[in-house]
Amino acid sequence: MKSILFFELKKIFSIKKTAICAGLVLLILCVTFFGRAIANNLFANLPHIKEQLTYASGEVTSERFAEDEKRFGEIINNPDNTLDSDFESDNRIYEGIFDGGATHQDVRDMLESILYIKAINDMPHKMIATLYRELAEPTISPEQTLLIQKNIDMLAQKGNLVIAYNLFYDYYNNFLINIFPYIIGFLIIFFIAPVFAGEYSAKMDSLILSSKKGKQGVIAAKLTASMLAVTIIYVFVMGFYILLCGAVLGFSGGESSFLTMYSDLYQYMGSPYNLTMLQFLLTTLGISYAACIGFSIFTLCVSANSSNNLVVFAICLMVFHVPLLMIAFADAGFPPIINIVYGRVAQVASLLDRFNGFVILGNVVMLKEIAFVCLIITSVFFGFGAWRSFKRRQVVN
Amino acid sequence: MELFIDRLTKQYGKKLAVDCFSLKLGKGVYGLLGPNGSGKTTLMRMMADVLRPTSGEITLDGVDIRKLDEAYRDILGYLPQDFGYYRDFTATDYLMYLSAIKGLEKSRAKQRTAELLTLVGLENEAKNKVKSFSGGMRQRLGIAQALLNDPEILILDEPTAGLDPKERIRFRNLISDISGERIVLLSTHIVSDVEYVANQIILMRKGEMIMQGTVDQIAALTNGKVWTAVLNPKEAEIVKTKHVIANLRHIDGGVELRIVSDEKPHEKATPTTPSVEDSYLYYFNEVNTL
Hints:
The complex is a heterodimer. Chain A folds into 2 domains: 2-40 and 164-391, no CATH class; 58-156, no CATH class. Chain A has a two-stranded antiparallel sheet. In chain A, 69% of the residues lie in helices and 2% in strands. Chain A has helices spanning 2-12, 15-39, 42-56, 66-76, 90-99, 105-135, 142-156, 167-178, 180-192, 194-201, 205-209, 217-249, 277-304, 309-329, 342-347, 349-352, 367-391, and strands at residues 357-360, 363-366. The radius of gyration of chain A is 25 Å and the shape is globular. Chain A is mostly helical. In chain A, helix 8 (167-178) crosses helix 12, helix 9 (180-192) runs antiparallel to helix 14 and helix 12 (217-249) packs antiparallel against helix 13 (277-304). Chain B is α/β, with parallel strands linked by helices. Chain B has 2 domains: 3-214, Rossmann fold (3-Layer(aba) Sandwich); 226-273, no CATH class. Chain B contains 11 helices and 14 strands. Chain B has a 6-stranded mixed sheet with strand order 6-7-8-3-9-10, sandwiched between helices. A 4-stranded antiparallel sheet of chain B has the order 2-1-4-5. In chain B, strand 7, helix 7 and strand 8 form a beta-alpha-beta unit. At the A-B interface, helix 1 and helix 11 of A face helix 3 and helix 4 of B.
């Protein structure tokens, strides 16, 4: 088995193909990171961002900002200036800050940031109030009642936001949503699609299937090698980006709330979950890895059923990337079920960013749990499909 | 050890590729002769357990080979007519991989790989990639892989395709050497490949077996039906249009013909000793590729 596994990995990672791919991926990851960093003038702003977030966390009080801070306190502590959940009063507060004449741009940024964080901190209470109003509606169904009650319970468990400098997590999250699924989906297809289809097109199937281990051991080795290959690819892509981010931005901020993404506070502000950044990182890594494994098994199943590599590529690209592109270009009007397709699960955000619950057999089940169960069921189904298709392969031409 | 093919049939749509084919194979070398499309490859694929029959079965000592599963494939060596390779694999990688999937231990695989590369004359190509090999070299590598597990049942589909005359002779000698305690079935449409090595020849046409016998028995099928004649070119042209010509040779001022015909094809024709090739031509009525 070990020998077969070694050769199966060797077939998947042929030297030339792998070297070119690895080079391209590293280039894309560097361009992704430094492109964003340069566009946001990160290196010049980094000390300012650190100061801003540590100030927001209440750890530091800057003497430099003493005068502005006093004015800021008047604004922020004025009950009339509390942002509502839709941020409708943004402009009024901005005007209050800017017309008040904050002397430094960084102070303005800081005020803005803290106002948003304050708003997000207050949001669970407002959402709970809204949900109680919905519960009081006479027309509400028992299922809706269960869902709202669950949502209220989850929101009620959220404490005050912990804020810290966490730009590393912010960059990670941005990568996970906008770049990672496209890259990993393509790499999985590129390396895994030929696992079975390549044997057919290379006319190796008759030799394999007529050999002693051709109908059991080889298939087991191919499935295992594919899982190992996907793990290697995942660790390579995600590991490199995480190390790159960490090397430049530092790894601190793991204890802060995942709702306080520096550059994208909107992303998870409605989330009912109560995770620290580190928990968020580990959770999303686990979910996206599971999605990659599930998708690679789907790819293997398609591969086992077609002798044309291009057909396998096309089908798998459609299944993984089309939902991502649909959402990216028209983020509305799709049923929640679209969020449990492979690409969207690998992206994770849609499973955590809002309350997505369903009543199944009288119990409230969250979308991420449904996605997880679906991944397991489809993986078993497609894994068995791949196994059976190759084992029962008829060598005709 | 006895391999029994029992009323084996393979149907593709309305076309019968193999039609109720039955045959008993004991130890020895069997040559399967037939024109293209006669069902040789389909029959061999079913024997190699890579194609399911529509009906009928193949048994080894009374047990269906599909029930034997791994145990059957463990003693099987198969060279398909059209087989592939991996572009990035060297000859050694290729044989080591196939050894692994045939269940050979690593040390044994290394030993067999070295032995067989030498046996097929590829010992100096062991570290070269298969993609750089000529057609003949690949075919020799294919023969080597079929022998990796020292199989008791060896199925070779067109093993001499792409081999030059010297390699073909080497292959024939190899088959003779290893045939002792095995069942060897080799298909070809090159009569001379099996004439020298096969204990039994099986003639196949349109999915059916039309004749089985030793080389002498098959040759004897055309006793009194093979003729030679030296004719002038004009006479030769007329004879060629009416009869199957096994051989044609220009000699001083005339043409020497070897003719396969039920009746005396020309008054100058004299009967001669038939060969397997003459019988092949007689039954398949086509000029063979030599």
